[in-house]
Design a protein that fits this description.
By secondary structure, the protein is an alpha+beta fold. The chain contains three helices and three strands, in the order αβααββ.
Amino acid sequence: DASLKTRCRILWRHPKQLASDIYEWAQANGLINGICTLYELHSGEDINGEPFEGADEELLRRAVNILEEQGKATLFKGETSSEDGIKFFP
């Protein structure tokens, strides 16, 4: 049937590893107890060369959800989805 569509998501990093990479980046950049936006994790000036640079928004959200489950971060709503904020905890 021509109306059927198949989707496939290829992950170059497991969300749990990506969560760890994001948290290490936050520590290295003094963001513990600080805030950044989802956009900054995707395209910010401070993420050049980081494993999550340019990552799919859904994948970034999955990684941040893992950090939330670990008590290391919380995600809160911004005016747009790319402005959603992430606060990191020690």
